[in-house]
Amino acid sequence: MSTSSKYFKPSQGNANLENIFAEAEGRISDLEDSTQQLVNGRELYSKRIDTLWSQVEDLENRSRRNNVRLLVLKEGIEGDNLIVCIEKILSEGLHMHIDNGFKIERAHRSPGSRPDENQSPTLIMIRFLRSTAREKVLKAAREKGGAVRNGCNISLFPNMMKELAGRRKTFTTAIQLQTRK
Fold first, then answer.
1. 138: burial class by Cβ within 10 Å (0-12, 13-18, 19+)?
2. What does pTM read for this prediction?
3. What are phi and psi for residue 63, nearest 5 degrees?
4. Residue range 44-71: average pLDDT?
5. For residue 154, which of 56, 58, 66, 85 has the smallest C-alpha distance?
């Protein structure tokens, strides 16, 4: 059927008009069906994306499980070997006995240019070989309120994604109430 014959022409009568309406209703129905399929597909893909994102978060937090963030160590204090400096902070500042269980896999400052004297120093990421060493270090830092090295009040924190830190923060008051009992 050509395009010009699809439209109603008064000379063709009501039969042609009914055919045109039936064809239009069929097209509209097909469009509604395909739209509904797209909406249902979007919901399915949205659920899949949420599931995948939660798996990514879990993997990211597991990969950070052995990491500790060290804050407020002045730039340049560490000298040539950052790991030796961190071991001194742990032994002298937190009074911990450093043995093979406290093996530091790697340590580095966060990337970026060196800050000016009046700016806060960049943080240091420490990765322990074992998660037990990380837990002991964080426990000692909590108990002692951090460490002091060359006039710097050094703080140690677990390394985790912002989302997980936010979820944990929501439980802080409940945990504090529980420990007071």
1. middle
2. 0.65
3. -70, -25
4. 91
5. 85
